[in-house]
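Consider the tokenized backbone below.
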């Protein structure tokens, strides 16, 4: 059983949800959830946001087991994960590496280790479909010109 599998089950049980309740709430079949929790399959990226919302967990905790102490509350958009306003909050080092690699079309941008960073940048509106949005390009130009 891998760590994501263990954390999926832990998050569901902490929310006092049965597998049937969780599957219904995420609009998936029970077999699919069973496969995720048994480690036979992993959720697709399209299901990750449903998991984070339903279980009220942090994405970073699900993938890496670390927490910032914030929980996702659907009724409080200011607490929503992955949402940062620019330029008040700056990108972290890995996000800067990824957005720079996308800007210069470097092969590092295809590295799967940047999956979480893609999710963050997409949540900020800087990346869509593995390419920079106009906002992302504008942000990169400011960053590149400043260096």
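A designed sequence for it:
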């Amino acid at each position: 059983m891998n760590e994501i599998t263990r954390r999926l089950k832990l998050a569901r049980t902490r929310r006092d949800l049965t597998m049937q309740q969780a599957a219904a709430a995420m609009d998936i079949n029970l077999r699919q959830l069973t496969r995720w929790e048994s480690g036979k399959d992993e959720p697709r990226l399209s299901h990750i946001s449903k998991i984070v919302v339903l279980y009220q967990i942090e994405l970073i905790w699900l993938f890496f087991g670390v927490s910032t102490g914030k929980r996702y509350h659907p009724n409080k958009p200011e607490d929503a994960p992955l949402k940062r306003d620019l330029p008040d909050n700056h990108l972290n080092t890995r996000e800067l590496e990824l957005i720079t690699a996308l800007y210069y079309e470097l092969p590092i941008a295809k590295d799967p280790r940047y999956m979480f960073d893609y999710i963050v940048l997409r949540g900020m509106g800087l990346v869509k479909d593995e390419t920079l949005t106009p906002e992302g390009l504008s942000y990169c130009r400011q960053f590149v010109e400043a260096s």
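Residues 61 and 94 are 17 Å apart (CA to CA).
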